[in-house]
Amino acid sequence: MASPAPTPRPPRDTTGLRARLTIPVLAYCGILMAVMQTVVVPLLPDLPRLTGASASTVSWMVTASLLAGAVLTPVLGRAGDMYGKRRVLLLSLALMTAGSVICALTADIALLITARALQGAAVSVVPLSISILRDELPPERRNGAVALMSSTVGIGAALGLPAAALIIQYANWHAMFWVTAGLGTTGVLLIRWAVPESPVRESGRFDVTGALGLAAGLVCLLLAVSQGGEWGWGSAPILGLFAGAALVLALWWRHQLRAQRPLVDLRLVSRPRVGLSHVAALLTGFAFYANTLVTAQLVQAPEASGYGLGLSIVQTGLVLLPSGVVMLLLSPVSARISAARGPRITLALGAAVIAAGYGVRIADSRSLVMIMVGATVVSVGTTLAYSALPALILRAVPATQTASANGVNVLMRTVGQAVSSAAVAAVLVHHTSLVDGLPLPTLHGYLVAFSVAAAVALAGSAVALLIPGDPAPENEPVRTEGARSVADGTVKEDA
């Protein structure tokens, strides 16, 4: 029996204080997520002494967060589409905050690694927030808000490094995690106050088998990529992990095609507009991340290397700070370009600008000014590209799948960053020389890394141009009184 036609719900008041603060609050949480990913970096050299663990064990403080973020992002995105984006967003921030509290209370390396895995859940903040913005904002405000939300990744990374270094330098290292715990608690309270729950949801049963299969496959894949340089690319554990990833993901793919309500709609992914956007996200993530990795190492190299500047971690953070400021200022510009030319043109332009930035780095990587100019140009391109990717996804998927589709897109960026980290490490290890008895990467090694990143960025630009022309935004969410979701003309009533 057909359901009676729902009575349209009055549009949400957009003039009140809460409504006007929705975008800033979501952006704050996105920046906080990125800060959380980078705050541990200044601690890594001292953590073996502080915890009594080996350097290889301490490196899991980064690896655990990477793996957890990659696994949980598509899972929590799908959960948001089904059970409420605001609800799952609060869960992600709560897990991140709980991880900070644990880190602040212990020096046990096992607990620290576990807590960092909890913090990895925060990576889903950005795709969930973008989906909320689609549901809550009119089209004329959406592009700018999505562009800002996408830029928070770079803004937070640029702010987190110097802020964490300053706290560690002038206070106990546990204080850094108490600060992030306080910021996380603030984020939870602000979300509860200023962000409404979207009525746009997809019904059905959550695909637990698909979630477990994807988690197992991604853990095998990313663990092999992130640890290959240390364990040996031809070693039995690494080869076994790659083989396991291939087998598990192949079985997962088969299950997704047969599932009635799959975790990831592979038929949707097979559409060129969606699939090519994911490929571009992978390539852009690779190209962007090389800039952060290489710049920090290069400027901290001792002057005896012939190219290094011998900067401290605080000074290094200040070198990267202009990149974050540029990303904040340019997010409205990228939204205007997307509105005028379409997000695929913005994506292609952004990837090309990233390549140009690496061209500056190749031309001169000895002068501090030119290093900052090159890094900032890469950040300009990253702002354009990262703001365009979610805009492409929003135009190409139904309203009930925006969080999960953006989660997969963020996952592809994460995989690109993991591969970039492994590739840059392999290049720099291959090009080393002894400086005061210590092996250090040569300048030629850095230039090779820049060249690889530039080539990948140009490939990303080419892929962007292959994406079919942008259609007018479709499948807009329709708000209804008592309705759980409206998508593609169907209404699913609350139970």
UniProtKB/TrEMBL annotation:
It is found in: Cell membrane. It comes from the Bacteria. Keywords: Antibiotic resistance, Membrane, Transmembrane, Transmembrane helix, Transport. One of its GO terms (cellular component) is plasma membrane. GO terms for biological process: response to antibiotic. The keyword Transmembrane applies. It is a multi-pass membrane protein. The keyword Phosphoprotein does not apply. The chain crosses the membrane at residues 21-45, 57-76, 88-107, 113-133, 145-169, 175-194, 206-225, 231-253, 274-294, 306-333, 345-363, 369-389, 410-431, 443-467. Residues 22-472 form the Major facilitator superfamily (MFS) profile domain. GO terms for molecular function: transmembrane transporter activity. Residues 471-495 are annotated as: Disordered. Gene3D superfamilies: MFS general substrate transporter like domains. This is MFS transporter. It comes from Streptomyces sp. R17.
